[in-house]
Design brief:
alpha+beta, 14% strand, two-stranded parallel sheet, 44% helix, 7 helices, Arc Repressor Mutant, subunit A, disordered C terminus
């Protein structure tokens, strides 16, 4: 079997990533996927892991849990329904994967306060409560202050992408804590 060039290697990884994002709910059939690409299952797994830094199955778990966090944040589905919706056959397997990926139980994630974005209308301020901005903010402008203990705009942290920092006002001081983005 000929060796793959760097471009082919990158294309292979991108192809697998696209397939995983499209079919994340399905069980992975590595031999069939490798045959479709035109290489052996062993070579597919080795090349993908070298390039992506994680196995194909771990990448699928990451994608599934990302979708699960969105469904849980929505708050309308039960944990079991979310598990089934993202491709897990059992709630216990889903809970274990969710805990390993996020460090929290799905029920804890689901109970978090919802985050809403700023209104699009210029000059209008958001209602008091937890909100966020997509770019990093410095000091919170005084006009966005709602008084002691109210949540104001969050600062988006770099990693993981679904985390942010909520900023609360306690008297004259600002405090930071965790918040989560959709």
């Amino acid at each position: 079997m000929p060796r793959l060039s760097k471009d082919q290697h990158a294309h292979l990884t991108a192809s697998v990533d696209r397939w995983l994002k499209k079919n994340f709910r399905e069980q992975i059939d590595l031999p069939a996927l490798a045959k479709e690409i035109g290489i052996t299952r062993f070579l597919l797994c080795r090349l993908y892991t070298e390039r992506a830094g994680k196995t194909i199955r771990l990448k699928q778990r990451e994608i599934r849990i990302h979708h699960a966090t969105k469904l849980l944040s929505n708050g309308t589905k039960k944990v079991g329904e979310v598990a089934k919706a993202v491709g897990y056959g059992s709630v216990s397997h889903f809970t274990k994967a969710f805990l390993e990926e996020t460090g929290e139980l799905p029920s804890v994630w689901k109970s978090r306060p919802r985050i809403v974005s700023f209104p699009k209308t210029a000059g209008r301020l958001p209602e008091p409560g937890l909100t966020f901005v997509r770019e990093t903010i410095g000091e919170v402008p005084p006009e966005l202050s709602y008084g002691s203990g109210q949540l104001v705009p969050a600062r988006v942290d770099s990693a993981p992408p679904s985390r942010a920092t909520r900023i609360t006002r306690r008297g004259k001081r600002w405090q930071e804590g965790n918040a989560f983005l959709d």
